[in-house]
Hints:
Blueprint lengths: L1 H8 L5 H26 L3 E5 L11 E5 L2 H8 L4 H13 L2 H7 L3 H20 L11 H9 L1 E4 L15 H12 L4 E4 L2 H17 L12 H8 L21 H18 L5 H6 L31 H4 L14 H5 L20 H6 L3 H7 L11 H6 L4 H6 L5
Amino acid sequence: MEYQEAKFRGARASAKANDNDIVKTWGKIANTSQNLSHRTSAATFGFVCSSKPGQNVTQQFFGNGPIEAFLMSKFGMTGEEFVESAESYFIYTSAGRIATGMGVKKMQKEIVRLIAEGLREVTKNEKLSMEYDHYDILLVKEYGVRLVGWPEGVRFLNPHKLHASDVIKLYNNIHQKVCRWKKLDGREFHEAKKEIELKVKRGELTEPERHRRGKKRQAEDNGDDRGGKKAKKGRTWLKGKESSSQKLSKRRVNEKALDDSDGELPDEEMENSDKPHPLPRPRPVPRLILKEGVRVIGRTVLSDSDDDNDEGQSSTDKTSHPAIDSADPVNDQPDPYQSDSGNNDSEEERDELDDPEDFFDQVPDYEDDADIDYDLYVSGRDDAADVLDDDSWY
Length: 394
């Protein structure tokens, strides 16, 4: 029974035969409808399109009477646009997607993949990609290949820019190997190149523009030296870390400026230097105390050069000196503990000055110079001089 129904209605073995049947039958229907409209003045219209993905049906439309004006007034589109909109609606329904298991977006991705794979296979170039905007110049003229079997009426564009009906037609042609890549032979390649060159001269084709060069090479071409390469974080190229010689020269300049300005950098060098040289921290002025009594024999001035000497020797020698023993080095006054004969004063005179406060009353210049460790004064330690020379007691 099913065989008899199929034989009566008709069945086609291929998509091409199916499409030919649609065009032939629809032509008869359109002529019959047109004759009917002329005889009766009736308005008739109709269309044919694909109803699901995978079909390759040529869109057909006919209209008799004011049908075009009606479609433009109510839908804002022509008859061809109306058919294309209807076909997109049919394909995007759930029934159409379930029939093939593939939507239009998946078809677009599959078309792009198949075209790219075929191009790389025929050119033996794995890095080559499809060019739609400059297809003739970059592919046909350069590699001697051509994509044949592109559906008629479908614009040669990226599949992602085509309408749903055009995507279906293109997918069907590629799947059936109708649309494929072909390698041109010598004569075909020569004729194709000649035809492309004529189109370029007439202005029908435009050659792709070369990418603009970087700032550095543009400056070299123009004879300008200002196009420098930029590194990360906005720094100028080759402005990396300073070398050891640069650091040493900068340190010497800062030290010389400190010597000339008594510990202060000039304003110009402070602005030019990346990191201002730290000013030396003022140190207290210790005094050498001997166990015989409170006796000032000089100042101990420590500096960077003195610290490099053996065991931190001070600028004042620790051994007694005739000039130091006989006079105060600060105010050039005779030492109150030393008599003219060089012998120490009597016990009673020394007892009166046991307290260091009494000594500073007599030598007021020393009061505010530094903080004194009074325990060290009265302890009478033999190594008082060594302790005072050490930096750790300040």
